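A favour, since you know our structure tokens better than I do. Just paste the record in under my message, thanks.
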Amino acid sequence: MDDVSFALPATARQLAYAQALASRNNTFLPWSVQQDRRALSAWIEAQAKDAPSFDHRPSSKQVAFAERIAQAKRRSVPDECFRDRQLLSRWIDSNL
């Protein structure tokens, strides 16, 4: 009964949730898994257990705030601060 021809297609709701999980966990959602409802369900279950990967980049609000401070102080924000949330936070704190 595991024949692909008898596999039920994944629902739109399943696919949307799976894509959100893939984005959250920064992982790849295989095409073959998307074609079978049971396979996608198992993939979703495994991904839901994984902790989301943490994005170390600063938020857009944080960047905008730092740029406003830099403009007011007539200096620039170091480039490395745009790659790390904590570095930018420290730069902001030291320039307030």
Observations:
- The mean pLDDT is 87.
- The chain is about 55% helix and 0% strand.
- Residues 19 and 29 are 7 Å apart (CA to CA).
- The chain has two domains: 7-49, 60-94.
